[in-house]
Specification:
Layout: E1 10-13, E2 35-38, E3 43-52, E4 61-68, E5 83-84, E6 90-93, E7 96-99, E8 103-109, E9 111-118, E10 126-132, E11 137-143, E12 152-159, H1 171-180, E13 185-188, H2 198-203, E14 211-214, E15 216-220, E16 223-228, H3 244-254, E17 259-262, H4 273-277, E18 279-280, E19 285-286, E20 297-302, H5 310-324, E21 330-334, E22 349-353, H6 364-372, E23 376-379, E24 383-387, E25 396-398, E26 403-411, E27 420-425, E28 428-434, E29 444-453, E30 458-465, E31 485-488, E32 491-494
Parallel strand pairs: 3-11, 12-13, 13-14, 17-20, 20-21, 25-32
Antiparallel strand pairs: 1-2, 3-8, 4-7, 4-9, 5-6, 6-7, 9-10, 12-22, 15-16, 16-17, 18-19, 22-23, 23-31, 24-26, 26-29, 27-28, 27-30, 30-31, 30-32
Length: about 500
């Protein structure tokens, strides 16, 4: 039986870690772990086992511990370097445990806890109140996979770990986290260095549960840009002082399939490309010389910066203006996670249409192909299907005489609130459906159609919102609140029958 140790009731010894804020670490190495000297008599052993409701077999899961009735929240670590199990099947970090096989034993301080067991956004959750005594306790949970997404693979394309100068999270801990969260692909985007999760996934024998691809986030005077897939151990030239087009060209020279993703485009000061380049949201044009539109994707939602969604609204306005001008950049949403608390990996995450969505099978090239075709949506929890006849997200749909019909299906796990579904046409809000989030929540929250009367070629997008935070699965406990949110990429409508999208403001 595996055994863990709680930080809250111990003497903690940590090797001091220093790093430069400007220079990336040369490589990910075995990082010092916390060392504990336990005080006896203050904890009880909690044995847990998590199984798949359909098969009865153990499964990966995340356990979130919340102290109630005056009990403090447990802290399994006091920093971003978690406590790893001796047999490498999980890691405990802050008030969460990320288990890749669903079984373990962990000592808890005596008291009362609400423990939430989860497996990402496609599964049910289980919350149980537990009284921890010196004699110990057992926790059993069954989770049900309630949302199937065949041929849609999930991925977070903006992830930091200890190769970045501003993150201390070991890459192994990220692997535990992403497997427990049910994410299909993790993309390494550390600052100015190409890192690779594949060796860590292989060493933990988790290749059937998580795919990865090397990438990079380059920090320049024009902003931050992500790129993936890149060759493992690729050596980057100095890009920080180059013009945007030179940066994009350099990435494509290194990786022929690379997606160029504009990260947090409206973040002020020295990091937001659209802010620095003085992009005009009304016209879709930039005022600063040497601004380039030759990117593939725009990060509309950044989980690290945009908890209030104010940047999302501004980013969507920019994006709609660009779509009107024929700049068909794909919308993405990513966590930009730097830590094992505050913002967690996969919130938001992208779903990308691929030929084979099996974890461990989908590749960076598969994801890049789907992103470049705009066959993607991003979400913190709701799952969206958006079609017009045989055309789906990212496709061109025929609208003879300006007539077209769209079909909308919104699904969510029962623990996720969905309150509104919005339809934008040509960047303008044309319809809002109010959805009840009270009482017993069905998996299908909205299934409807809507007739469009179009004057010319245009684009349509779906946005889904919920008003209840996703706490405690993600956020809360002295951290930020994450709300249900999803945005699709557009369906493009061809009114004049030339089988193309003629941008209305080109």
């Amino acid at each position: 039986m595996r055994r863990w140790f709680v930080v809250g009731l111990c003497t903690l010894s940590i090797t001091h870690l220093e790093h430069s804020s400007a220079t990336p670490k040369a490589a990910t190495k075995a990082r010092p772990r916390v060392v504990f000297d336990m005080k006896p008599g203050k904890t009880g052993p909690l044995a847990y086992e998590i199984v798949d409701h359909a098969t009865g077999k153990r499964m990966p899961a995340k356990l979130t511990f919340v102290g109630v009735k005056g009990t403090a929240h447990p802290r399994f670590s006091k920093n971003d370097i978690g406590r790893e199990e001796a047999d490498a099947t999980g890691v405990a970090s802050f008030n969460r445990v990320y288990s890749v096989d669903g079984r373990g034993e962990i000592p808890l301080p005596l008291g009362t806890y609400d423990i939430t067991v989860s497996r990402g956004i496609e599964w049910t959750i289980s919350t149980q109140r537990l009284e921890m005594t010196a004699a110990g306790a057992k926790l059993g949970a069954k989770l049900e996979h309630v949302i199937e997404t065949p041929k849609w693979a999930s991925g977070d394309f903006h992830v930091h770990a200890d190769p970045s100068p501003d993150s201390n999270v070991p890459m192994r801990d990220r692997v535990f986290e992403f497997v427990a969260e049910g994410i299909d692909m993790i993309v390494a985007t550390d600052h100015n260095i190409v890192a690779d999760y594949a060796p860590h996934i292989a060493s933990l024998e988790l290749g059937r549960q998580l795919s990865s691809t090397p990438g990079d986030e380059v920090s320049t005077g024009w902003g931050h840009f992500g790129a993936f897939p890149l060759p493992p151990k690729a050596q980057l030239p100095k890009l920080s002082r180059l013009k945007p087009q030179q940066v994009f060209d350099a990435f494509r020279m290194i990786g022929k399939d690379a997606v160029i993703n504009v990260h947090h485009p409206r973040l002020e000061k020295l990091t937001g490309y659209f802010w620095i380049g003085k992009l005009d949201a009304k016209t879709g044009t930039a005022k600063r010389k040497d601004f380039s539109f030759d990117f593939d994707a725009i990060e509309l939602l950044n989980g690290y910066e945009d908890t209030s969604k104010k940047k999302l609204d501004a980013n969507m306005a920019d994006w709609f203006a660009l779509l009107d001008r024929g700049v068909l950049a794909t919308a993405t949403g990513n966590s930009d996670t730097h830590h094992m608390t505050y913002n967690l990996g996969g919130y938001p995450r992208n779903y990308v249409q691929v030929d084979d969505d099996a974890p461990g099978t989908v590749t960076g090239a598969d994801m890049a192909k789907g992103i470049k075709a705009r066959r993607a949506f991003f979400t913190t929890a709701p799952i969206v299907s958006f079609t017009s006849g045989s055309a789906g997200i990212g496709d061109i749909a025929a609208a003879p005489g300006g007539n077209a019909k769209v079909e909308i299906l919104v699904r969510a796990a029962p623990w996720v609130a969905v309150d509104r579904v919005k339809l934008y046409v040509g960047g303008k809000l044309v319809k809002t459906w109010q959805v009840s989030s009270t009482g017993d929540r069905a998996i299908e929250r909205l299934k409807t159609t809507y007739d469009l009367d179009l004057e010319g070629d245009t684009h349509a997008v779906i946005r889904v919102e919920g008003d209840e935070p996703l706490t405690p699965v993600v956020g809360g406990i002295g951290s930020i609140n994450i709300y249900p949110l999803a945005v699709t990429n557009p369906i493009l409508f061809d009114v004049d029958g030339n089988k193309a999208y003629d941008a209305p403001r080109r």
